[in-house]
């Protein structure tokens, strides 16, 4: 029973990285922009956050540095695809490759660096409840932030005027432009917010989840977060649930290894990626369902006055 509680806690911890990045990418795509550069942004943010945390001793400054690095890269991406009308898919892939190379270069001096001792986070009173306490109430505050942000994003998208405008830009930028809304500005802001969230996920990965820096440590999580948006049919609550699903699969491989299950470690390590492929294959069997839920202008350039 205690092992199961620890598995739940580890699932929430692992899923938080995917949830924060996935919600950021969902905001991008709700505005009609596809950013395939999540992996690169998360890598740059991971080294930015880790280097800041090592230098200052503050996790929160590390998170701020990671979010800032993600937003800065996303702004460059946004300027290219929104104002210069470069291809969104090619530019996103270039950003991913650039981020991988830049993070590897910058991070050379931090491979052996050590973070200060981490405090133990626990909610007084609740953390001591048998089973429930270890499973749910001894998490880092960022875990609870991901859950709270999900519900906040649901309210924003479906209950606020600004969220309605964002969705309108993703559905029909021409109509939004005709009504006087600055479509390009809204898209750039959405891209930067999405980049900041991807950056926050990358910083959480290196500062809390691991905590260390090694080259390529994001290890495909940016691509899984990107797949989550389709898996969730662009709904925030489904992104959160999907993140925990993939987080659970990731943790399951370690659980099986510790119990001595006679399965090749390479196969266990591939489980999260196999799960991603299986889910996408199942979803793609019903393309009409995807089209109904997908923002109508997703991936399409917008030319004001064109």
TrEMBL record:
Listed GO CC annotations: plasma membrane
Annotated Pfam families: BPD_transp_2
Cell location: Cell membrane
Domain of life where this protein originates: Bacteria
Membrane topology: Multi-pass membrane protein
Signal peptide: none
Protein name: Nucleoside ABC transporter membrane protein
One example GO MF annotation: transmembrane transporter activity
Organism from which the protein derives: Rivibacter subsaxonicus
Keywords: Cell membrane, Membrane, Transmembrane, Transmembrane helix
Transmembrane portions of the chain: 6-26, 33-54, 60-84, 91-111, 141-158, 188-207, 213-232, 239-257, 263-283
